[in-house]
Amino acid sequence: MSSVEEFRAEIRGWLAANLTGAFASLRGRGGPGREHEVFAERLEWERHMAAAGWTCVGWPEEYGGRGATIEQQVAFHEEYALADAPARVNHIGEQLLGPTLVAFGTSGQRARFLPPIVAAEELWCQGYSEPDAGSDLANVRTRAVREGDDWVVTGQKTWTSLAHESQWCFVLARTEPGSSRHQGLSYLLVPLDQPGVEIRPITQLTGTSEFNEVFFDGARTRAEHIVGAPGDGWRVAMATLGFERGVSTLGQQVGFRRELETLIELARRNGAAEDPLIRDRLARAWTGLETIRCNALRMLDGVAVGAPGPEASIGKIFWATWHRELGELAMDVRGADGMLAAGKPYDLDDGQRLFLFSRSDTIYAGSNEIQRTIIAERVLGLPKEARP
């Protein structure tokens, strides 16, 4: 395996050589609030990457990856973001489900599901949250019953990102009647293109529909499509969440830095930087971004030795709050003009989209309130919150 700098130079050179021709127009496309942009073209780009061996770089080589170290994975995500390459469409399969199957899946499951993820031939979504089980995920009510060689799934999931573009969903369902909270849950792999599955896009503040409601009404999946043992779904689901907050967060922060630099340049051009309060907030945003990066690197150091520390718990709440505040700052830098769309229908610029989409950062993947409870109880060891 090459050194980190050699690996960084290799991916940088490949991106420079390949983000050309038909793919040149994809630079900067997609991302939060813009996930609808040129989706088919970005999927084609993803498959182009796969053909060159640039998907799933952190997976073991035996499963189609490159066996890249943590440091090399960080380099990959940073160089990808620095090249302004298009937002990935296979993130959930590559960064969440794939590592989960490597860790918990059977040999048959790995053989069936990992190659299509590597090739970007099958896209996945995450069936966790429900109307009454969002941040309180243990309140899951979607149920699955074993009937012969199948599991039969009935229930509703919500906030299901990119379900309308996906072929499969990994679903957390209650498989033990009478169980409650963390007990009796199972982790099922469910095909979406079948009778008994209805997907309804949810229109967001940005006017787009990244996430959806998904209704299961007797939907079926084969009995062997359960990851881990029946009733052990909570442990597998929590592992997936751990993978979600992995090395790709470093690439996310490069995107954050680009947003901040664009905002600073705008403040200089329109005179907002002459306001001492705006200057102070811009400086605080810069120091906050440096703090996010340091916390992420500390977290990855812990992951490398198998023992992530408390920074893994504080990372999400910190960056989510920071990004929401950056959206508010973007509107203040814009001034009154920021309240007007450029045209119809609902033509938003990047700053407006940042402001609106970042309102969700402190809600999805565990709201700030839930994150504070986790930190208090599981990291600091404080008494548990009273619950009915």
Q: How would you describe this protein?
A:
With 388 residues, the chain is of the alpha+beta class. It contains eleven helices and eight strands. The chain has helices spanning 4-18, 39-51, 70-82, 91-104, 107-118, 233-244, 248-270, 276-304, 311-334, 350-357, 368-379; strands at 124-127, 143-147, 150-161, 168-174, 185-191, 197-201, 211-222, 226-227. The strands form two sheets. The chain has a four-stranded mixed beta sheet. Strands 2-3-7-6 form a four-stranded antiparallel beta sheet, with no helix packed on it. Strand 2 (143-147) and strand 3 (150-161) form a beta hairpin. The longest helix is centred in the last third of the chain and has 29 residues, at 276-304. The radius of gyration is 21 Å and the shape is globular. The model has no long low-confidence stretch (mean pLDDT 89).
Helix and strand topology:
Blueprint: H1 4-18, H2 39-51, H3 70-82, H4 91-104, H5 107-118, E1 124-127, E2 143-147, E3 150-161, E4 168-174, E5 185-191, E6 197-201, E7 211-222, E8 226-227, H6 233-244, H7 248-270, H8 276-304, H9 311-334, H10 350-357, H11 368-379
Parallel strand pairs: 1-4
Antiparallel strand pairs: 2-3, 3-7, 4-5, 5-8, 6-7
Helix pairs in contact: 1-3, 3-7, 4-5, 4-6, 7-8, 7-9, 8-9, 9-10, 9-11
